[in-house]
Write a structure and sequence with these properties.
Layout lengths: L14 H10 L24 H14 L3 H11 L23
Helix pairs in contact: 2-3
Length: 99
């Protein structure tokens, strides 16, 4: 019995191929195409202890993360800040059901 070779499931699929597959399957609407976002990278800056403390206090007073406070300031300064960079992405702890 001959073995079949499959394309990698991780290979990117272009929107035209997805539309063709949907058409072949008889669907009215093609499968959703999720645009790829930009890659996230970490930045690290050294500032004075006083500035770091002021940033932490400001963020806490505003109910923000320090990243949100910084990205809002960058947006206010005219830099192009992506909406997801303004979100609080802090992992939340799950509530324990055990007593």
């Amino acid at each position: 019995m001959a073995s079949k070779t499959f394309k990698s499931a991780k290979a990117p699929v272009d929107p035209a191929t997805l539309r063709q597959v949907a058409a072949d399957a008889g669907r009215v609407l093609p499968a959703a195409v999720v645009p790829r976002g930009s890659k996230r990278v970490m930045i690290n800056v050294k500032v004075s202890e006083e500035l770091a403390r002021s940033l932490a206090e400001h963020a806490e007073a505003e109910g923000l993360t320090q990243k949100q406070a910084i990205t809002r300031a960058l947006a206010a300064a005219g830099l192009a800040v992506q909406p997801h960079d303004l979100e609080d992405l802090t992992p939340r702890r799950r509530l324990s059901t055990s007593g």
